Amino acid sequence: MNQNKKQKPAKVITIILFVALIICGLITLSGLLLEKTALNPAFYHKLTDDPALHEHIRGLLWQALTGQEEQPDDSAVYSAFRSAFDEQWLTDQLDLAVDRVLGFVRGNENSLIVNIDIKDRKGIFRQELLLLAKDP
Fold it and tell me: What radius of gyration, in Å, describes the C-alpha atoms of the chain?
């Protein structure tokens, strides 16, 4: 009976250590999964190639610059807007934003600031509009 009392705490300690080992393994595994997905820039860079995302962002830009809720798909003005804010430029800006956000989340940056300069793109849009005005 004395031996049973000595074995009982040993079994409890063994079970506690086993559970702790499993929990540590799960935490390590979730950290590895996070590194491959949520903390991996390549995961988001694949998402930034989505044309639907480009159209959504282009719609937000259109609304911010023109004050119009809906963008006219067949308009020559909207066509000029689309050529100024093209797919490559949108992808580059999204990739830059992703890199900055992930740098902040990882602790590489002390503050989160994402600035997107559209001054040059507004200039391109203006030039496209001037070309439209010159063509009869």
Answer: 27
